[in-house]
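Progress report, Aim 2. The chain analyzed during this reporting quarter is listed below.
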Amino acid sequence: MSATSVQVISSRLDDLVNGFLKVLANERGSSTHTLRAYQRELHGFAAWVNGHYESEQSADQNVDQSVQRIEHTDIRAYLGRRFRRLTLGSMIWSTAF
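Predicted structure tokens for the chain:
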């Protein structure tokens, strides 16, 4: 998969995330802290998806198909990775003192 394809998919996911954040801000009246947390997590997930599917996608694959391939198992895998990183970080922190 070419770097351009990854950028297009990344851009499409970023567009979806930004649209969702606008809905949260404008229609739901979410706080700044909530919006910041959602932004951090959703952009982190989008970056993970790009890396996860990078080797599996062909250069001519439709971007919307790539986005539609995201399933609940991808979300669970991302959250599991985040949990392991947080757990490892807290274990290192607790043994440092």
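The chain has a mean pLDDT of 77. The chain is about 80% helix and 0% strand. These observations will guide the mutagenesis work planned for the next reporting period.
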